Amino acid sequence: MSPPVDHERYMRLALREARRGLGRTSPNPAVGAVLVKDGKVVGRGHHARAGAPHAEVAAIRAAGARARGADLYTTLEPCDHFGRTPPCSLAILEAGVRRIFSGSGDPNPRVNGRGLRRLRRAGVEVRTGVLREGCDALNETWFRFITTGRPHVTLKVASTLDGRIATAGGDSRWVTGPEARALVHRLRDASDAVMVGAGTARADDPRLTARLPGGRGRDPLRVVLDSRLSLPASLRLFRQRSTAPTIVAHVAGDPPARPGRGVEYLRCRARRGRVDLPDLLEKLGGRGVTSLLVEGGAEVASALLAAGLVDRLILFLAPKVAGGGRSWLEGSGPARMRDALSIRDLEVQRVGDDLMLTGRPVPKGDRTPRVD
């Protein structure tokens, strides 16, 4: 009698493959696939970039003739439509794959079960939901994008224990330690875009590039909110080279006739004289931005949270007490504690000497407790 197959083990291998494409596949999801035959992995692959073969096709090509009669583990259900590449469902049938094990369902209306139905009709055995929680978490940014048309928004804040992002004298370097700052570079590397407000751009003069060891980082699209085009052209965002352009979101003023190299100007709708954030997110989604990392400052963080536009909050807490200075949030806040913003799925981990708290803000009016 054959021993039971550890399907979750092979799906974990597929997840490992999928992570290789994080931050590189937009506007497509990150997907990994593994082919297994007679208890051995005979092919593996991941979606490397938009326009490149999908993960299932990459794994089939790696397996060659050994794909016939094999089991395919894929983190996302196979597609069934023609885009830049042919449908994965057809490639799977042509390869003679025996069984399919998928993790996440695909909410894209062009997919949404169609590929699996085609495979079942052709006699392929299909099992869904293998390690679904992990597969869903892998592509939470893309799920938000494909269902709403706007990017998934992660708000990152670095604060002292008393909630300060700068001292009373305005000094903000450095709140956290080198380990936390290195992790932020990895967050940038995995994000399509990174955004700051004009105040942060002026005070910190950041580069917003992804500087990883060995020069492996991929720079995200850089977005700066400059409603009235008041920022000086001497900022590093405008004059230092990057592999990604800088977008200046504004509502008034005339862009320079000769903008800096790689600098684009994006006029947005105005809301109280400032950039209307929902309009900006819609415009970024329209150009294929699926994930947006927001790094400051207090005005931007407050506006995004108040509008219910933050999907994930990452708060780095440094073991320091400033005793004054700028808070990372603005405004008076609610009168009653029961109306304070709730954070769901809170996780805490140590990053060097700092703490990293990660959670999901609960939208206004949503008081339903989560049931796992």
Question: Would you mind describing this structure in some detail?
Answer:
A nine-stranded mixed sheet has the order 11-10-9-8-14-6-15-18-17, with helices on both faces. Strands 2-1-3-4-5 form a five-stranded mixed sheet, sandwiched between helices. Helix content is 26%, strand content 26%. Helix 3 runs parallel beside helix 4. The model is unreliable at 367-372 (pLDDT under 50). The protein is an alpha/beta fold and 372 residues long. It is built from eleven helices and 18 strands. Helix 8 links the parallel strand 8 (193-197) and strand 9. The chain has helices spanning 7-19, 55-63, 88-95, 114-121, 132-138, 140-148, 178-189, 198-204, 236-239, 277-286, 298-306, and strands at residues 32-37, 40-46, 71-76, 99-104, 125-127, 152-160, 164-166, 193-197, 221-225, 246-250, 263-267, 270-271, 274-275, 291-296, 312-318, 326-327, 343-351, 354-361.
